[in-house]
Amino acid sequence: MRIVSLLLMLSLAVPALAGKTLHVYILTGQSNSLGAIKGNPAAPERLRPAPERLRFWQANFGSYNRVTPPHIPHWEKVRPQRAAQEVMGPEYGFAQALEAANPWPGDDIALIKASRDGGGNTHWLPGGDAYTAVTNAVASAIAALPKDTYDAVRLEALLYLQGESNKGDEISAAPKRFAALLDNLRRDLPPLTGADASSLKAVLCEPATWHGRDLLHNGVTTRDGLKALADAREDIGWVPTRDQPKITHGDAMGVHYNGDAQIVIGRRLAAEALRLAKPE
Q: Which residue spans within the chain are E strands per DSSP?
């Protein structure tokens, strides 16, 4: 009886272990988010250390990303993907930086990527192919998690690298449309996934130029509109990209960043996402 009483006292004195949470990031956008590096991959030394712990679900879409046999999205390690050619967006550097920072010891981190190979922001309106791809990817990824692994799934931030292909009204509407995209995901993802999106933030990447020039509509640019939105909102961060190198062959558009640039952009995304998650 004394032993039973002692064990009962010890069990009451030791607090219950906290459940594990999965912290989820969502990456979407067009070709620089997809990573159309076209034969200009990152230097091997920049790929070390390879991400090992972050869960990665890639559900990229669009004609450039067709593969044979078709890619079936599944939970895996972050790695360069293969499409028509090697594809690596900012997810690799993002994963490296998040693993090094280890912001939630004892918890896990996941990145769900659903990026396409071009197109203006109309695709990210509700009912558009990009909006459907993103919401389906998040729902499928969370449904495929091992059962009873996590007590909670929390959507941390939307990582968005898009804007180079905006034309006409898409350019002037870019800030409003992105703000609506964030609101729509906060509304639509919880009932689809069971995840907590109440603190979902966003990080905007500066869209690249075409041979050093922005596309204009009525004197405004996508870049300036998105930067103004990030400056005005505490829940939206900003990552500069235009100091980074473009690919040197395999593309005549003058818009695509090379593999080394993608590593840097990914690390900047991670730093900005963590700043938003843990404001000083």
A: 21-29, 55-58, 81-82, 86-87, 108-115, 152-161, 201-205, 216-217, 220-221, 236-239
DSSP-derived secondary structure letter, 42: P
- pTM for the whole thing? 0.92
Is omega for the bond preceding 49 within 30 degrees of 0, making it cis? yes
Residue 2: what residue type? R
Task: Bin 206: left if φ > 0, else alpha if -120 < ψ < 50, else beta.
Answer: beta
What pLDDT digit, counting tens, does each position of 181-224 carry? 999 999 999 999 999 999 999 999 999 999 999 999 999 999 99
In tens, the pLDDT along 132-171 reads 999 999 999 999 999 999 999 999 999 999 999 999 999 9
Phi, psi of 241 (to 5 degrees): -135, -20
β-pair partners for 153: 22
Token couple for 30: 């067009």
Cα→Cα distances 202→105, 155, 186, 193, 253, Å? 22, 10, 11, 19, 28
Tokens of 207: 């869209």
The answer to whether the CB of 170 falls within 8 A of the CB of 120 is: yes
